[in-house]
Amino acid sequence: MTRNPFILEPYRSKAYFCDRESETQEILSGLENGRNITLISPRRLGKTGLIYRVFDEIQASGRNWLTIYADISSSQNLEDFIHLLAEAVASRLEKKSRIQTFLRTLGGIRPLISYDPLNGQPQISLTYRSEDEKRWTLKSLLGYLDNLGEPVVVAIDEFQQIREYPDTPMEALLRTYIQPLRNIRFIFCGSKKHLMVEMFTDARRPFYESTAFLFLKKLDPEAYAGFIRRMFAKGSLEIRDEEIRFILEWTRGHTFYTQMLCNTLYMQARHKVIRQEDVAWAASSILVSERDRFLEIQRLITPAQWKMLRAIAREGDVSAPTAAAFLKKHGISSGATALRNLTALVDKELLLAEPDGSRTTYRVYNVFLSRFLESL
Asked: pTM higher than 0.85 for the full model?
């Protein structure tokens, strides 16, 4: 059976991954030269896929490195962090004997292991008697990796989440444990640019100037166009430049939304040559399928916030949200009201705020939501 080449999971293989060659080499070069990396991008722009692309390249090149990926976005405290990192380590050790050795290094906290019946991944249960035991466990876990005798790369996704832990000075604690390590390199990934930049550039913070930065940008339109053309050709389908330009404009070149639209278009293709009406139909079908979810957002925020969200969507990008012309055009009562609603929508991750020098540009985070709001 022919598989849809426009994948929606972060990574399958190099054959289904578009470009990012320079970013891949930049990360590899940094790791090889003893640097930790801070990787920052908005959500769904492809940073997780890039991490797995780097890991794939490491394996393909014959480097004897252990690669570990841990997503800590769901963590609420130090215990959650240890749990997620421990399971990520165990999932990469492969042999049960190595997993058992790893668990024994965690000592007196009575670790238990089971395996998910659906995917076979290890599930670890840890019990603590005190906060000191948690800290000792984290230090032991990192010490185990450092003493493996092979280079280790640990990618921690949504790293800014450690700032939300209520009872632990996590930045200082983690920096203290990481600093003496000699055999581990870290990729700290995050989607909240202002928080991540502050963590690594503020001289008052523990991770100050401890990494090299990489800000992930949208894919080059020409490279993405060539990729789209090749993927459609895998299914003996032809797509013209005009339709590709429409796709990239409608999705604003954002990786996930472009993949989703192309995936839908490929699935619905009725002709060997993709036509403009085919693309429009695919785009419309996505918005119809998402309609109920988007209207649920309206019920979860205030009417004033919904008005602001619609106003931003209709403008596309807004860099002067308190300007009289913008307020009057969209029926917003005052600049103070606009700022209050902007802050709330950014906190809810419904708007993306991108600082650029002395000003900040706002846009609706979810491109499909933005297109839906435009249609109202």
From this structure: yes
